[in-house]
Each structure stands twice: as structure tokens, then as C-alpha cells.
Amino acid sequence: MNTIKNIEQTIKENLAVMLYFSAPTCNVCHALKPKLLEAIDKNFKEFTVISIDTSIEQEIAAHFSVFAIPTILVFLDGKEFLRKSRHMSVDEVVREIKRPYEIMMS
């Protein structure tokens, strides 16, 4: 079970963290998630991904000011770097992360 404390700790301890907010009733979320996770895995070896079910974990969603799904938050070196909601393409997400990620890892 995710807690705000656990998530904050993970963000602090890992260079690259993605929070993926979705819910069981969200078809877009389910279509996007496997493609996104595969692209992250292929392009960025050092990513920690945490999935958050907003239907159960509303408190966590509120804590991170997430009010629409799907939403992804990407943290690089402990700071929020990217926030995308609703309409996003996997390529777009990868493109936006690639350069800062590579700089950070070099």
C-alpha cells in the first residue's frame, strides 16, 4: 500500500521517479500504462515507477494536486520535473524526459 510518506521517501532516495495516477474505471489509463512503462523501461534504466489508484488513494492524489486521470508526475533528483494529464503520447513523454535524464545520469 502506498503512503504519502513512502512516496516522498522514494522520491528522495531515487534519481528518477514517475508517479502514475489512474483508476480502474479509466480506459485511457489502462491503454496508456503498458505502453508508457515499456517505453520508460527501454529508454531509462534508472526509473522507479509508482502506480497510484485514485479511487482508493484519494489522499495521495490530493497531496500531489492531481485531479484528473491519467496523470503522470516525473521527479528528477527529488524535484518535480514533468506533469502531464489526460492527453499525452508516450513519445512526447519520452522526448521531454530524455535530455535532462541523460544529463543527470552522465
Provide a descriptive summary of the structure in words:
One of its GO terms (cellular component) is cytoplasm. GO terms for molecular function: protein-disulfide reductase activity. The protein is α+β, with helices and mostly antiparallel strands. The chain has a single domain, classed as Glutaredoxin, CATH 3.40.30.10. 46% of the residues lie in helices and 25% in strands. A four-stranded mixed sheet has the order 2-1-3-4, sandwiched between helices. α2 runs parallel beside α4. The longest helix is centred in the N-terminal third of the chain and has 17 residues. It is globular. It starts with a helix and ends with a helix. The model has no long low-confidence stretch (mean pLDDT 95).
Describe the structure using short key phrases.
four-stranded mixed beta sheet, 106 residues, alpha+beta, Glutaredoxin, 4 strands
